[in-house]
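re: ur question from yesterday

yeah so i grabbed the chain u mentioned. its 853 aa long if i counted rite. heres the sequnce exactly as i have it in my notes:
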Amino acid sequence: MARCRLALLAAWSAVAVFAAAPTHFQVSGIYPHLATFNSQGECGTGAVVPWADRLWVVSYSPHQPKGSDDKLYEITPDLRQIIRPESIGGTPANRFIHRESQQLFIGPYAIDPQRNVRVIPYTKMFGRPTGNARHLIDPAGKIYYASMEEGFYEVDVHTLAVTELFRDEQLKEPFRRADLPGYHGKGLYSGQGVLVYANNGEHGKDALSKPDIPSGALAEWDGRSDSWTVVRRNQFCEVTGPGDLYGNRNPATDPIWTIGWDHRSLILMVRDAAGNVGGVPSRLRPAGSDAAGADGRAETAVKAAPRDPNARINPRGEDTPPTLADRGNWHAYRLPKASHAYDGAHGWNTEWPRIRDIGENDLLMTMHGAFWRLPRDFAPGKSSGLGPRSNYLKVVADFTRWGDRLVLGCDDTAMSEFLNKRRAKGKLAAPGQSQSNLWFIEPAQLDQFGPAIGRGAVWLEEPVRHDVPSEPYLFSGFEQRMLHLAHEGGAPATFTLEVDREGDGRWTKLRDVVVPGGGYAWTVLAAQEKGAWIRLRCSRDCSRASAVFAYRNRDRRTERADARFDGISGGGATAASAGLLHARGKGRKTLGFAATSGEFYEMGDDLKLRRSEEAGAAEWMQQNVAIPADAVTSDAASILYTDEAGRRYRLPRAAGSVGGGRALREVCTERDLLNCGGTFFELPAENAGGIPKVRPIATHGRRVHDYASWRGMLVMSGVDSNAAAGNAHVVRSEDGRAAVWLGVVDDLWAFGKPRGEGGPWKDTAVRRGVASDPYLMTGYDRKSLRLSHGAATTVRIQLEVDIAGTGHWLPYATFEVRPGKTVEHAFPADYQAYWLRVSADADTTATAWLVYD
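ran it thru and got these structure tokens back, copy pasting raw so excuse formatting
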């Protein structure tokens, strides 16, 4: 491993000369001239790898197993972009460095140290290449390729001769098939005598709308047999180990990691070759079993537990209970999700989460909108030290260290919105051409984006068996932690909390929490309650139970926006440069700006905003990029958002906020940015949960007129005419009459701490027992409630919470509100839920008002 790190460090240091490069325009780490384009519905960045004194990049189209107009890019140390003539496109996301032959394999290309490029044509190796791995039998002479549809090949590293091992499922001619459950392959790695493959999706109509159906698979193959073994039936992405892109240096003993998820939480799994945790061979232990050893009870429970997430899938695709031997040396750990925008049983919303060596003590992992710190020796028995760094909004498909900076390859602007279409967008033309870019950041910035939040469950509205331990769930790395517990049994249930304090597999009791029959309880996990992992047991069988964790780090932002936003209109009397924004097509690769005053402007990669007299350009934008007037509505109580199914949800409003601008747009592929009530929100696609899984990003209170994605940047209009002098993020037109703001979507974290006020009722006529609309609760810091009514007698008002964004409501408290009085309630600092709602026990006029700050 030390030699692998030295090789990586040599590759990184070879390009640590950015200061000597010619001057290129850049904004927030985006160099516009490095943007990539294609003619397809999406243009993502599949892989970024330093090699031979260059940075190599491949772009991809959404489904092109036979090739496309995507390119192989060679980026020089002075940031010149060279399009290699050998390019054949496709949908590549694989990358691998073969030690013995000294070649980089990236997409269908093999690149030697002299930067000679050879190509494996798709006629010889059909499919969408998603991963490479060292060969199990001839690692010096061959490597493995895997496609996203279970095509497996071995390639001779010298001749590039291709041998088909398992046929891609898109090809219908008879041949040996992997026949794995799920589809949409992602990760590939080898070690410990097996080739490991992950997919993260599912075929079928239900996968397009139900994120909680069985989906995806993790599987392994011994390199010789005709069949694969399914390890776990869940959605998995990255598969890797300490050897990173080179493959494990000690394949017989080095661990293999994979990161995935289900509707409950993230799932991190590790294949442990040592087979020994706390003195017990791991092959004989279910994940989460006692360090004292499997005792028969655990084996029975694993086999009998309903909806066991570790159930194997037989050749017919049906769930079959695993034996302990089936579990092999794999161990599972659950982690919280920062964002739900990556959910979806089809698997399309993730791109390629990665685990990479970036030259620090720990590895960097990306998953579900969070940067994670993963210890490079993470394994059962040494599982402490994993934790979040910050939350992010960009869709990151690969990343690498290059010189003294990190380069993140992103998926920014898709001409197709796929399943992400909404009424609230109105008649909004798609970007004229799909495009993405590289994002250059300093390593320290990994800790400086959005404050880390994490939500997840070990059980979610499902059967739970008596005394069967849950899988381990992350217990460290967050400053504020709480646990929601609920069940539907008629008698009280005791939930026992146990912790693995040091990450060594030894479990001790923390405490008990008693939940009344058919009830709900919550508990704060105090700072002095320490440990690496936590798990739960229940004192009785429950037909339906939930154990949901809500974590966050303290939000140290203030209400004041960072200076980079100086000039964005505050909504006062000062005139602002407002207008419509659109990434133009037909090969222009420019940004169009149709000012509200009628003029049309255009911007190229030199970041100069020039007036254009192009006939019909402004009129086309006014007709096709217009801002709908009714995307969201509001009343005296709050902002009202109605989703595609007609369901109503209420959101806070910032004090003094002004409206009138665009409310909804996709600025990162397959998820939306919602701007209403003076706050930007991340809004997952409908197939990933939609508005019930929304989260606030920042509250600004400004008059942002329009916003769009272009060349990897976030562009906003609504710049004060007399402000922003000296702000490098503001670009004024050459005639001085127009201006736009440029940055990246993750600049928004610095726009102001989320805050707001409002509620489900404001002097509202309410009916007895009729619940209010849901009102957003998640993602805010300090929260308080005021209740009042106009009745002549005391009214009991019940407050309920939705703890997981699933629409399952639980009783938080009932407040007795006397006539003419106001009841005030401050929520505990650690308390978090997705939504709240209220109901009264009498017809009356009532107010339920919340203040978040």
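noticed a couple things. Residues 13-20, 276-327 have pLDDT under 50 and may be disordered. also Residues 577 and 719 are 5 Å apart (CA to CA).
anyway ttyl
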